[in-house]
UniProtKB/TrEMBL annotation:
Pfam families: HATPase_c, HisKA_3. Keywords: ATP-binding, Kinase, Membrane, Nucleotide-binding, Phosphoprotein, Transferase, Transmembrane, Transmembrane helix, Two-component regulatory system. The chain crosses the membrane at residues 62-79, 91-111, 118-139, 145-162, 169-187, 193-212. Residues 1-24, 306-325 are annotated as: Disordered. This is histidine kinase.
Amino acid sequence: MFTRSLIPDREPARSPGRESARSRTMRAARQALRVLAAELGTPAGPGTPLFGNVHSRWLRRLPYIVAFAFTVILLPSTRTVLSDYGMSGGLAVWLVGGLAIAQTVPLLLAVTRPLQAWWVIFAADILCAMALTGADRIAGRAWPWPPPVVIGYLVLMLALSLRERRRTLIAVWLTTGVVGLLFAPVAPDRSHSTGVLLFVLTGVLLLMGAILRERGAVQRKLLEQETISEAERARRTLLEERARIARELHDVVAHHMSVITVQADSAPYRISGIPKEAQEEFGAIAATARESLAEMRRLLGVLRSEEAERHHGPEKTPQPGIGQLPKLVEGTVRAGVPVELALPEELPALEPAVDLSAYRIVQEALANVVRHAPGARTRVSVTATAERSRLTVLVVNSAPPAPSAPLETGGTGHGLIGMRERVRLVDGSLDTGPLPDGGFRVAARLPLSALPLSAKDSATA
Protein backbone atom coordinates (compact mmCIF):
# COMPACT_ATOMS: atom_id res chain seq x y z
CA MET A 1 0.00 0.00 0.00
CA PHE A 2 1.45 3.22 -1.16
CA THR A 3 0.88 6.51 0.63
CA ARG A 4 1.36 9.94 -0.93
CA SER A 5 3.85 12.00 0.91
CA LEU A 6 2.40 15.15 2.43
CA ILE A 7 5.73 16.98 1.99
CA PRO A 8 5.57 19.14 -1.16
CA ASP A 9 8.09 18.46 -3.84
CA ARG A 10 10.98 20.87 -3.96
CA GLU A 11 11.26 23.25 -6.93
CA PRO A 12 13.99 22.31 -9.35
CA ALA A 13 17.22 24.20 -8.71
CA ARG A 14 17.96 27.02 -11.16
CA SER A 15 20.88 26.60 -13.44
CA PRO A 16 23.90 28.59 -12.23
CA GLY A 17 24.83 29.41 -15.83
CA ARG A 18 21.33 30.73 -16.61
CA GLU A 19 21.29 32.78 -13.40
CA SER A 20 24.71 34.29 -14.12
CA ALA A 21 23.73 35.14 -17.73
CA ARG A 22 20.55 36.86 -16.53
CA SER A 23 22.46 38.81 -13.88
CA ARG A 24 25.06 39.86 -16.44
CA THR A 25 22.31 41.06 -18.77
CA MET A 26 20.64 43.07 -16.01
CA ARG A 27 23.97 44.51 -14.94
CA ALA A 28 24.80 45.50 -18.52
CA ALA A 29 21.38 47.10 -18.93
CA ARG A 30 21.80 49.12 -15.73
CA GLN A 31 25.27 50.20 -16.84
CA ALA A 32 23.91 51.26 -20.23
CA LEU A 33 21.16 53.30 -18.57
CA ARG A 34 23.68 55.00 -16.30
CA VAL A 35 25.88 55.87 -19.28
CA LEU A 36 22.83 57.12 -21.19
CA ALA A 37 21.76 59.31 -18.29
CA ALA A 38 25.29 60.63 -17.83
CA GLU A 39 25.63 61.54 -21.51
CA LEU A 40 22.24 63.22 -21.64
CA GLY A 41 22.97 65.21 -18.50
CA THR A 42 26.50 66.40 -19.29
CA PRO A 43 26.77 69.17 -21.91
CA ALA A 44 30.01 69.34 -23.86
CA GLY A 45 30.38 73.10 -24.30
CA PRO A 46 30.63 75.87 -21.69
CA GLY A 47 27.83 77.91 -23.28
CA THR A 48 29.82 79.38 -26.17
CA PRO A 49 27.52 80.31 -29.08
CA LEU A 50 27.62 78.20 -32.21
CA PHE A 51 30.17 79.61 -34.70
CA GLY A 52 31.38 81.88 -31.88
CA ASN A 53 35.04 81.33 -32.79
CA VAL A 54 34.85 82.23 -36.49
CA HIS A 55 36.27 85.52 -37.71
CA SER A 56 33.32 86.55 -39.88
CA ARG A 57 30.76 88.62 -37.98
CA TRP A 58 28.00 87.49 -40.31
CA LEU A 59 28.72 83.81 -39.61
CA ARG A 60 28.70 84.49 -35.86
CA ARG A 61 25.22 85.98 -36.14
CA LEU A 62 23.88 83.28 -38.48
CA PRO A 63 22.80 80.80 -35.71
CA TYR A 64 20.79 83.54 -33.97
CA ILE A 65 19.11 84.52 -37.23
CA VAL A 66 18.18 80.92 -38.07
CA ALA A 67 16.89 80.17 -34.57
CA PHE A 68 14.82 83.36 -34.48
CA ALA A 69 13.38 82.72 -37.95
CA PHE A 70 12.28 79.16 -37.13
CA THR A 71 10.83 80.28 -33.80
CA VAL A 72 8.75 82.99 -35.43
CA ILE A 73 7.54 80.60 -38.15
CA LEU A 74 6.89 77.51 -36.01
CA LEU A 75 5.23 79.15 -32.99
CA PRO A 76 1.95 80.18 -34.71
CA SER A 77 1.89 77.12 -36.98
CA THR A 78 2.37 74.77 -34.02
CA ARG A 79 -0.40 76.48 -32.08
CA THR A 80 -2.74 76.25 -35.09
CA VAL A 81 -2.03 72.56 -35.69
CA LEU A 82 -2.47 71.65 -32.01
CA SER A 83 -5.75 73.58 -31.85
CA ASP A 84 -6.96 71.74 -34.95
CA TYR A 85 -5.95 68.36 -33.53
CA GLY A 86 -7.66 68.94 -30.20
CA MET A 87 -10.68 70.88 -31.38
CA SER A 88 -13.11 68.08 -30.48
CA GLY A 89 -11.03 66.73 -27.64
CA GLY A 90 -11.52 69.67 -25.41
CA LEU A 91 -7.91 70.78 -25.12
CA ALA A 92 -7.69 73.97 -23.14
CA VAL A 93 -6.45 77.08 -24.89
CA TRP A 94 -3.79 77.62 -22.24
CA LEU A 95 -2.50 74.08 -22.74
CA VAL A 96 -2.26 74.51 -26.50
CA GLY A 97 -0.43 77.82 -26.09
CA GLY A 98 1.92 76.47 -23.42
CA LEU A 99 2.84 73.42 -25.49
CA ALA A 100 3.46 75.54 -28.58
CA ILE A 101 5.74 77.88 -26.64
CA ALA A 102 7.64 75.01 -24.97
CA GLN A 103 8.17 73.30 -28.33
CA THR A 104 9.48 76.33 -30.25
CA VAL A 105 10.89 79.10 -28.04
CA PRO A 106 13.76 76.93 -26.63
CA LEU A 107 15.22 76.94 -30.16
CA LEU A 108 16.67 80.31 -29.17
CA LEU A 109 18.45 78.59 -26.26
CA ALA A 110 19.86 75.98 -28.65
CA VAL A 111 22.34 78.54 -30.02
CA THR A 112 24.34 78.42 -26.79
CA ARG A 113 23.01 75.37 -24.85
CA PRO A 114 21.51 72.86 -27.30
CA LEU A 115 21.41 69.92 -24.86
CA GLN A 116 19.40 71.89 -22.29
CA ALA A 117 17.08 73.05 -25.08
CA TRP A 118 16.61 69.41 -26.12
CA TRP A 119 15.45 68.46 -22.63
CA VAL A 120 12.77 71.17 -22.69
CA ILE A 121 11.58 70.55 -26.26
CA PHE A 122 11.62 66.75 -26.00
CA ALA A 123 9.66 66.82 -22.74
CA ALA A 124 7.14 69.19 -24.34
CA ASP A 125 6.87 66.88 -27.37
CA ILE A 126 6.10 63.89 -25.12
CA LEU A 127 3.45 65.85 -23.20
CA CYS A 128 1.95 66.98 -26.50
CA ALA A 129 1.74 63.41 -27.80
CA MET A 130 0.08 62.26 -24.56
CA ALA A 131 -2.41 65.16 -24.65
CA LEU A 132 -3.39 64.39 -28.24
CA THR A 133 -3.82 60.65 -27.67
CA GLY A 134 -7.51 60.97 -26.85
CA ALA A 135 -8.35 63.66 -29.42
CA ASP A 136 -11.21 62.79 -31.77
CA ARG A 137 -9.69 64.36 -34.86
CA ILE A 138 -6.32 62.64 -34.60
CA ALA A 139 -7.33 59.73 -36.83
CA GLY A 140 -5.80 60.03 -40.27
CA ARG A 141 -3.22 62.60 -39.11
CA ALA A 142 0.46 62.48 -38.25
CA TRP A 143 1.04 61.25 -34.69
CA PRO A 144 2.73 61.23 -32.14
CA TRP A 145 4.81 64.01 -33.72
CA PRO A 146 2.84 66.58 -35.77
CA PRO A 147 4.68 68.18 -38.75
CA PRO A 148 5.67 71.44 -36.95
CA VAL A 149 7.05 69.37 -34.08
CA VAL A 150 9.12 67.31 -36.52
CA ILE A 151 10.55 70.42 -38.19
CA GLY A 152 11.48 72.09 -34.90
CA TYR A 153 13.02 68.89 -33.59
CA LEU A 154 15.19 68.48 -36.70
CA VAL A 155 16.42 72.07 -36.40
CA LEU A 156 17.33 71.31 -32.81
CA MET A 157 19.19 68.18 -33.91
CA LEU A 158 21.34 70.21 -36.27
CA ALA A 159 22.38 72.58 -33.48
CA LEU A 160 22.94 69.64 -31.13
CA SER A 161 25.19 67.81 -33.61
CA LEU A 162 27.42 70.87 -34.02
CA ARG A 163 28.16 71.06 -30.31
CA GLU A 164 27.83 67.78 -28.41
CA ARG A 165 30.00 64.67 -28.28
CA ARG A 166 29.36 61.63 -30.43
CA ARG A 167 28.16 59.52 -27.47
CA THR A 168 25.68 62.22 -26.48
CA LEU A 169 24.30 62.32 -30.03
CA ILE A 170 23.86 58.55 -30.00
CA ALA A 171 22.06 58.77 -26.64
CA VAL A 172 19.67 61.44 -27.99
CA TRP A 173 19.01 59.41 -31.12
CA LEU A 174 18.30 56.19 -29.19
CA THR A 175 16.05 58.02 -26.72
CA THR A 176 14.05 59.46 -29.61
CA GLY A 177 13.62 56.00 -31.12
CA VAL A 178 12.65 54.35 -27.82
CA VAL A 179 9.98 56.96 -27.07
CA GLY A 180 8.60 56.54 -30.58
CA LEU A 181 8.36 52.78 -30.05
CA LEU A 182 6.57 53.26 -26.71
CA PHE A 183 3.89 55.37 -28.41
CA ALA A 184 3.46 52.89 -31.29
CA PRO A 185 1.01 50.46 -29.52
CA VAL A 186 -1.48 53.25 -28.72
CA ALA A 187 -1.36 54.89 -32.17
CA PRO A 188 -4.90 55.52 -33.47
CA ASP A 189 -3.79 55.14 -37.07
CA ARG A 190 -0.50 53.34 -37.65
CA SER A 191 -0.40 54.30 -41.30
CA HIS A 192 0.20 57.90 -40.24
CA SER A 193 2.67 57.21 -37.45
CA THR A 194 5.69 59.56 -37.49
CA GLY A 195 7.77 57.74 -34.87
CA VAL A 196 9.94 55.86 -37.36
CA LEU A 197 10.15 58.89 -39.66
CA LEU A 198 11.47 61.14 -36.90
CA PHE A 199 13.89 58.44 -35.77
CA VAL A 200 15.39 58.09 -39.26
CA LEU A 201 15.53 61.83 -40.00
CA THR A 202 17.07 62.50 -36.59
CA GLY A 203 19.83 59.98 -37.27
CA VAL A 204 20.54 61.48 -40.70
CA LEU A 205 20.81 65.05 -39.37
CA LEU A 206 22.89 64.06 -36.37
CA LEU A 207 25.27 62.17 -38.65
CA MET A 208 25.57 65.05 -41.10
CA GLY A 209 26.15 67.61 -38.35
CA ALA A 210 28.74 65.42 -36.64
CA ILE A 211 30.61 64.97 -39.94
CA LEU A 212 30.62 68.73 -40.55
CA ARG A 213 31.82 69.42 -37.01
CA GLU A 214 34.61 66.83 -37.16
CA ARG A 215 35.64 68.09 -40.59
CA GLY A 216 35.92 71.62 -39.23
CA ALA A 217 37.93 70.37 -36.26
CA VAL A 218 40.32 68.51 -38.57
CA GLN A 219 40.77 71.61 -40.73
CA ARG A 220 41.53 73.73 -37.66
CA LYS A 221 44.10 71.20 -36.47
CA LEU A 222 45.70 71.09 -39.91
CA LEU A 223 45.89 74.89 -39.94
CA GLU A 224 47.48 74.87 -36.49
CA GLN A 225 49.98 72.25 -37.58
CA GLU A 226 50.82 74.23 -40.72
CA THR A 227 51.40 77.33 -38.61
CA ILE A 228 53.59 75.40 -36.19
CA SER A 229 55.47 73.75 -39.06
CA GLU A 230 56.09 77.10 -40.72
CA ALA A 231 57.40 78.57 -37.47
CA GLU A 232 59.63 75.54 -36.91
CA ARG A 233 60.86 75.73 -40.51
CA ALA A 234 61.76 79.40 -40.08
CA ARG A 235 63.51 78.65 -36.79
CA ARG A 236 65.43 75.75 -38.30
CA THR A 237 66.46 77.93 -41.24
CA LEU A 238 67.69 80.60 -38.86
CA LEU A 239 69.76 78.09 -36.90
CA GLU A 240 71.18 76.58 -40.08
CA GLU A 241 72.12 80.02 -41.36
CA ARG A 242 73.83 80.89 -38.10
CA ALA A 243 75.75 77.63 -38.20
CA ARG A 244 76.77 78.36 -41.79
CA ILE A 245 77.99 81.82 -40.83
CA ALA A 246 79.93 80.34 -37.91
CA ARG A 247 81.60 77.82 -40.23
CA GLU A 248 82.58 80.52 -42.67
CA LEU A 249 83.96 82.81 -39.98
CA HIS A 250 86.04 79.97 -38.63
CA ASP A 251 88.61 80.46 -41.38
CA VAL A 252 88.79 84.19 -40.68
CA VAL A 253 89.35 83.79 -36.95
CA ALA A 254 91.61 80.79 -37.41
CA HIS A 255 93.88 82.82 -39.68
CA HIS A 256 94.34 85.53 -37.04
CA MET A 257 94.89 82.96 -34.30
CA SER A 258 97.49 81.20 -36.43
CA VAL A 259 99.30 84.49 -36.98
CA ILE A 260 99.29 85.13 -33.23
CA THR A 261 100.69 81.66 -32.57
CA VAL A 262 103.48 82.01 -35.13
CA GLN A 263 104.43 85.49 -33.91
CA ALA A 264 104.46 84.44 -30.28
CA ASP A 265 106.54 81.34 -31.00
CA SER A 266 109.06 83.14 -33.21
CA ALA A 267 109.43 86.30 -31.10
CA PRO A 268 112.38 84.99 -29.02
CA TYR A 269 114.24 84.11 -32.25
CA ARG A 270 113.39 87.28 -34.16
CA ILE A 271 114.01 89.75 -31.37
CA SER A 272 117.27 89.60 -29.45
CA GLY A 273 117.65 90.47 -25.82
CA ILE A 274 114.19 89.47 -24.71
CA PRO A 275 114.08 88.76 -20.96
CA LYS A 276 113.28 85.28 -19.78
CA GLU A 277 109.98 86.42 -18.28
CA ALA A 278 108.95 87.87 -21.66
CA GLN A 279 109.93 84.63 -23.41
CA GLU A 280 107.75 82.68 -20.98
CA GLU A 281 104.91 85.13 -21.60
CA PHE A 282 105.23 84.69 -25.37
CA GLY A 283 105.19 80.93 -24.86
CA ALA A 284 102.02 81.16 -22.78
CA ILE A 285 100.39 83.30 -25.49
CA ALA A 286 101.29 80.76 -28.16
CA ALA A 287 99.97 77.87 -26.03
CA THR A 288 96.71 79.72 -25.39
CA ALA A 289 96.33 80.46 -29.10
CA ARG A 290 96.88 76.79 -29.98
CA GLU A 291 94.29 75.71 -27.40
CA SER A 292 91.83 78.23 -28.85
CA LEU A 293 92.43 76.85 -32.34
CA ALA A 294 91.79 73.32 -31.07
CA GLU A 295 88.54 74.39 -29.40
CA MET A 296 87.43 76.15 -32.58
CA ARG A 297 88.04 73.00 -34.60
CA ARG A 298 85.91 71.01 -32.16
CA LEU A 299 83.14 73.60 -32.41
CA LEU A 300 83.37 73.53 -36.19
CA GLY A 301 82.97 69.75 -36.12
CA VAL A 302 79.72 70.19 -34.20
CA LEU A 303 78.37 72.92 -36.49
CA ARG A 304 79.31 71.26 -39.76
CA SER A 305 76.61 68.99 -41.14
CA GLU A 306 77.51 65.31 -41.13
CA GLU A 307 76.00 64.96 -44.61
CA ALA A 308 78.09 67.82 -45.99
CA GLU A 309 81.19 66.41 -44.32
CA ARG A 310 80.55 62.98 -45.81
CA HIS A 311 79.93 64.19 -49.37
CA HIS A 312 82.13 67.27 -49.65
CA GLY A 313 84.73 66.80 -46.96
CA PRO A 314 86.15 69.66 -44.89
CA GLU A 315 85.81 73.16 -46.30
CA LYS A 316 89.26 74.21 -47.47
CA THR A 317 88.48 76.82 -50.14
CA PRO A 318 89.10 80.51 -49.31
CA GLN A 319 86.03 82.51 -48.32
CA PRO A 320 84.76 84.87 -51.05
CA GLY A 321 84.50 88.64 -50.84
CA ILE A 322 83.63 91.72 -52.88
CA GLY A 323 86.44 90.93 -55.32
CA GLN A 324 84.49 87.84 -56.48
CA LEU A 325 81.28 89.76 -57.26
CA PRO A 326 82.00 90.06 -61.02
CA LYS A 327 82.24 86.27 -61.26
CA LEU A 328 79.01 85.91 -59.27
CA VAL A 329 77.21 88.39 -61.55
CA GLU A 330 78.49 86.59 -64.63
CA GLY A 331 76.96 83.33 -63.43
CA THR A 332 73.66 85.07 -62.71
CA VAL A 333 73.58 86.54 -66.23
CA ARG A 334 74.07 83.06 -67.65
CA ALA A 335 71.00 82.01 -65.61
CA GLY A 336 68.88 84.47 -67.63
CA VAL A 337 68.85 87.52 -65.32
CA PRO A 338 70.30 90.75 -66.80
CA VAL A 339 72.46 92.21 -64.04
CA GLU A 340 74.47 95.45 -63.97
CA LEU A 341 77.32 95.69 -61.49
CA ALA A 342 78.80 98.94 -60.19
CA LEU A 343 81.91 98.69 -58.01
CA PRO A 344 84.24 101.45 -56.76
CA GLU A 345 87.42 101.97 -58.74
CA GLU A 346 89.51 101.01 -55.76
CA LEU A 347 88.11 98.37 -53.45
CA PRO A 348 88.55 99.40 -49.82
CA ALA A 349 90.47 97.22 -47.43
CA LEU A 350 87.74 95.43 -45.52
CA GLU A 351 87.89 93.14 -42.57
CA PRO A 352 87.22 89.54 -43.59
CA ALA A 353 83.89 89.38 -41.74
CA VAL A 354 82.56 92.50 -43.50
CA ASP A 355 83.93 91.40 -46.87
CA LEU A 356 82.29 87.97 -46.56
CA SER A 357 78.97 89.42 -45.34
CA ALA A 358 78.79 91.85 -48.29
CA TYR A 359 79.39 89.03 -50.77
CA ARG A 360 76.80 86.74 -49.17
CA ILE A 361 74.15 89.49 -49.11
CA VAL A 362 74.57 90.07 -52.86
CA GLN A 363 74.55 86.32 -53.44
CA GLU A 364 71.29 85.82 -51.51
CA ALA A 365 69.64 88.81 -53.22
CA LEU A 366 70.52 87.56 -56.71
CA ALA A 367 69.35 84.05 -55.79
CA ASN A 368 65.99 85.49 -54.74
CA VAL A 369 65.71 87.33 -58.08
CA VAL A 370 66.39 84.12 -59.98
CA ARG A 371 63.83 82.20 -57.93
CA HIS A 372 61.02 84.71 -57.58
CA ALA A 373 61.45 87.19 -60.47
CA PRO A 374 63.17 85.34 -63.34
CA GLY A 375 64.28 87.66 -66.14
CA ALA A 376 63.91 90.89 -64.12
CA ARG A 377 66.52 93.60 -64.76
CA THR A 378 68.75 93.91 -61.69
CA ARG A 379 71.35 96.44 -60.60
CA VAL A 380 74.02 95.71 -58.00
CA SER A 381 76.06 98.60 -56.62
CA VAL A 382 78.69 98.71 -53.88
CA THR A 383 79.82 102.09 -52.58
CA ALA A 384 82.21 102.98 -49.77
CA THR A 385 82.06 106.23 -47.79
CA ALA A 386 85.33 106.86 -45.99
CA GLU A 387 84.15 109.78 -43.86
CA ARG A 388 81.24 107.75 -42.56
CA SER A 389 83.18 104.49 -42.49
CA ARG A 390 80.26 102.78 -44.21
CA LEU A 391 79.99 100.26 -47.01
CA THR A 392 76.63 100.32 -48.82
CA VAL A 393 75.45 97.27 -50.77
CA LEU A 394 72.38 97.89 -52.93
CA VAL A 395 70.53 95.28 -55.03
CA VAL A 396 67.44 96.50 -56.89
CA ASN A 397 65.40 94.49 -59.39
CA SER A 398 62.44 95.55 -61.48
CA ALA A 399 59.30 93.56 -62.15
CA PRO A 400 59.67 90.53 -64.46
CA PRO A 401 59.36 91.47 -68.15
CA ALA A 402 56.45 89.09 -68.69
CA PRO A 403 54.02 87.53 -66.23
CA SER A 404 55.46 84.12 -65.50
CA ALA A 405 55.25 81.71 -62.63
CA PRO A 406 58.19 82.07 -60.21
CA LEU A 407 60.44 79.10 -59.72
CA GLU A 408 59.50 79.10 -56.03
CA THR A 409 56.15 80.27 -54.68
CA GLY A 410 56.60 79.51 -50.98
CA GLY A 411 57.60 83.03 -50.06
CA THR A 412 59.17 81.95 -46.79
CA GLY A 413 61.85 84.66 -46.87
CA HIS A 414 64.64 82.34 -45.78
CA GLY A 415 67.17 84.36 -47.83
CA LEU A 416 66.20 87.49 -45.92
CA ILE A 417 66.80 85.65 -42.65
CA GLY A 418 70.40 84.96 -43.69
CA MET A 419 70.91 88.58 -44.75
CA ARG A 420 69.67 89.89 -41.40
CA GLU A 421 71.92 87.52 -39.49
CA ARG A 422 74.99 88.58 -41.47
CA VAL A 423 74.21 92.27 -41.07
CA ARG A 424 73.65 91.82 -37.35
CA LEU A 425 76.96 89.96 -37.09
CA VAL A 426 78.97 93.04 -38.16
CA ASP A 427 76.68 95.58 -36.49
CA GLY A 428 75.18 96.90 -39.74
CA SER A 429 71.67 97.65 -40.93
CA LEU A 430 69.41 96.11 -43.57
CA ASP A 431 66.49 97.66 -45.44
CA THR A 432 64.33 95.47 -47.69
CA GLY A 433 60.94 95.85 -49.28
CA PRO A 434 58.89 95.89 -52.50
CA LEU A 435 58.94 98.80 -54.96
CA PRO A 436 55.91 100.54 -56.50
CA ASP A 437 56.67 99.14 -59.98
CA GLY A 438 56.59 95.55 -58.71
CA GLY A 439 60.31 95.15 -58.09
CA PHE A 440 62.25 94.60 -54.88
CA ARG A 441 65.03 96.45 -53.07
CA VAL A 442 67.74 95.21 -50.73
CA ALA A 443 69.98 97.81 -49.10
CA ALA A 444 72.65 96.82 -46.56
CA ARG A 445 74.88 99.28 -44.74
CA LEU A 446 77.97 97.69 -43.23
CA PRO A 447 80.86 99.23 -41.29
CA LEU A 448 84.19 99.26 -43.10
CA SER A 449 85.62 97.56 -40.02
CA ALA A 450 83.62 95.23 -37.80
CA LEU A 451 82.92 96.54 -34.32
CA PRO A 452 85.04 94.77 -31.69
CA LEU A 453 83.21 92.53 -29.26
CA SER A 454 84.00 94.75 -26.26
CA ALA A 455 82.67 97.81 -28.08
CA LYS A 456 79.48 95.93 -28.97
CA ASP A 457 78.97 94.92 -25.37
CA SER A 458 79.48 98.47 -24.11
CA ALA A 459 77.14 99.88 -26.77
CA THR A 460 74.48 97.35 -25.87
CA ALA A 461 74.85 98.10 -22.16
